[in-house]
Write a structure and sequence with these properties.
By secondary structure, the protein is an alpha/beta fold. It has helices spanning 17-27, 57-62, 76-86, 100-103, 108-114, 139-146, 148-151, 167-190, 200-205, 211-218, 253-262, 277-282, 284-296, 300-309, 320-325, 327-332, 372-380, 384-392, and strands at residues 8-11, 31-36, 66-70, 91-94, 119-124, 195-199, 235-239, 245-249, 314-316, 335-338, 345-348. It is 40% helix and 13% strand. It has a six-stranded parallel beta sheet with strand order 3-2-1-4-5-6, with helices on both faces. The two termini are 33 Å apart. The relative contact order is 0.14.
């Protein structure tokens, strides 16, 4: 049993944000019907590292659990088949630029006429309203527009990408999951679906803690701080003697006192030195230099052992090679190895962990159109002759 058994999702999205929402729903039992263009398919099949099966590693991982159906939506017959599929689905996911679905006669009002219970998730760069609604955009643009990229980098250097260039896609996909689950819950009472509208930049902006209220109250414009954090110190990255990097996060006075004890310098946490947070903030560079010198005089593992013994929040800055060797990742199933069209493939596992109805990866990204015949026969009751004619005409 899965939490979303019986829920059917029509995934019309391309690349990542909308489709990632469908991916997560599929991990927990929803039936995902991935609609793609005949011949070329979703652009995600060519985004990332190429493989011998013709699809990228990104597709194989993120196309998990999806039934691939090809439809030529430029052909009226393809759009009619899509309308019929909408009538038997619970959720419709799309992330085209605003207006594309309307040009096909499949805006939310039209979808509601076809299926009053349908929930529509719409993801775009700037949302369905506003002066920028028609502008294209990807995650990198969203990182900049949201204010995140402005904060990433060293104080005297240029803004940099905050790790993954696809962060906004994944975050927005997760907000999409929240939105459609809320809409499913509301539908239990109302019997009606609703539209969930998300802009890529909004999910990232929502995660920037007190950035907005601080500016509104004081006019404070946060600038790049490298690895540091605005309101606490020491809360940064420090390099050990063997070249390894360590994150230390002392968010209050008690944590700093434990760190000072671990360092063998308990006097640093006295009221006369850096015990109060205000004193540490006023002497940020000096505090960071003291911690940095202590870390720099020891190996990474020695520092981590001392921090863990003193219950100081600290951890390594892992490379992917470190992650593959880490026992915590193994114990939690954060990495899983699944059979695929290119052999066993290790991919990120399923989140979150549910005790009674856990999610699972049933298969990785399917070949283009692998399920077209089965879906049209099962859901739309088309016979083999009709399906063969549609395929001959390039509709599927």
């Amino acid at each position: 049993m899965h939490a979303l058994d019986g829920v059917r999702v029509l995934d019309l999205g391309t690349y990542l944000a909308g489709p990632f929402c469908a991916t997560v729903l599929g991990e927990f039992g929803a039936e995902i019907i991935k609609v793609e263009r005949p011949t070329s398919g979703d652009n995600l099949r060519r985004f990332g590292s190429d493989t011998e099966c013709g699809d990228t590693l990104v597709w194989l991982s993120e196309g998990r659990n999806k039934r691939s159906v090809t439809l030529n939506l430029a052909d009226p017959r393809g759009r009619e088949l899509l309308r019929e599929l909408i009538q038997v689905c619970d959720i419709v996911v799309e992330n085209f630029r605003p207006g594309v679905m309307e040009r096909w006669g499949l805006g939310f009002d039209q979808i509601r006429e076809l299926n009053e219970r349908a929930i529509m998730l719409r993801v775009s760069a700037y949302g369905q309203e506003g002066p920028y609604r028609d502008r294209p955009g990807f995650a990198r643009v969203a990182h900049g527009f949201s204010g995140l990229a402005y904060l990433a980098g060293e104080p005297d250097g240029p803004p940099v990408t905050p790790g993954s260039t696809s962060l906004a896609d994944y975050m927005t996909g997760l907000y999409g999951v929240v939105g459609v689950l809320l809409a499913l819950r509301a539908r239990e009472s109302t019997g009606r679906g609703q539209c969930v509208d998300l802009a890529l930049y909004e999910s990232v902006f929502r995660a920037l803690d007190e950035l907005a209220p601080a500016y509104q109250r004081t006019g404070y414009v946060r600038e790049r701080m490298g690895a540091d954090t605005v309101n606490v110190v020491p809360h940064s990255h420090y390099r050990a003697a063997d070249g390894g990097w360590i994150a230390i996060a002392c968010s209050n006075d008690d944590m700093f006192a434990r760190l000072a004890e671990a360092m063998g310098q308990p006097e640093l946490a006295s009221a006369e030195r850096f015990g109060p947070k205000a004193a540490r903030l006023a002497h940020r560079d000096e505090v960071n230099d003291l911690v940095g010198a202590w870390v720099g005089g020891r190996t990474r593992d020695e520092v981590l052992e001392r921090c863990h013994r003193s219950e100081v929040p600290a951890g390594p800055l892992n490379s992917i090679a470190d992650i593959f060797d880490d026992p915590q990742y193994r114990a939690r199933g954060t990495l899983v190895t699944v059979d695929s069209r290119i052999g066993p493939l290790t991919v990120p596992g399923v989140l979150p962990a549910l005790s009674e109805t856990p999610g699972e990866i049933r298969w990785l990204g399917a070949e283009l159109g692998a399920h077209t015949t089965a879906v049209l026969a099962e859901l739309l009751h088309l016979d083999a002759g009709k399906i063969g004619a549609l395929r001959a005409d390039g509709v599927i």
